[in-house]
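Sample pair:
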Amino acid sequence: MRIREWDDIVEDVVEQDVDPEGWRAVGGKRSGGVGEDLYVGHPRGGVYMLKTYAKNPYEVRGVGTQVARKLDDEIGSFLPAQDTDGRFAVQQPPEDEDAAEETARHVEEVVKAHADAPTTPDDFFDDLMGALDSPAFGPMEFDRYDRPDEADELSDRFEEAEELLNAELDELVDEDDVGRAFQ
């Protein structure tokens, strides 16, 4: 198991050659420490575990690893279905000014099309992510104040990764001298 910086793991997700709409995520408050846990999975892209915390309002620190090469039915049962209310997306900025203008035109077309016709929030989100050429997006269950049961189930399934990532994140928190300032 290779533990890396959290943003390197996100880059792995971005570089996957899979259907961008097929990603699903679940996460919430980290059990037993400062920060958040996030599991991101795709049937062909694998499952990734990330542990992050906000060092300050401008900097996120964290670690992560790939915990499974494929998303099977058992693990997939702990990730949200398409009809979940929450959504997430991974975005990359356009490469240059021309690409930015092209993206803006696509976004404008999508917004106009949805403004002129009946639509659902999910359809609007999916079409907008397509216009933005998002490399990964989909349903997400996330609780900022607690931890979804599904996140606990995944932690139990990947107990070794959970322990190693917790130790690495605890080192970062100690290194940065970050604790629970307000309780």
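Residues 92-133 form one domain.
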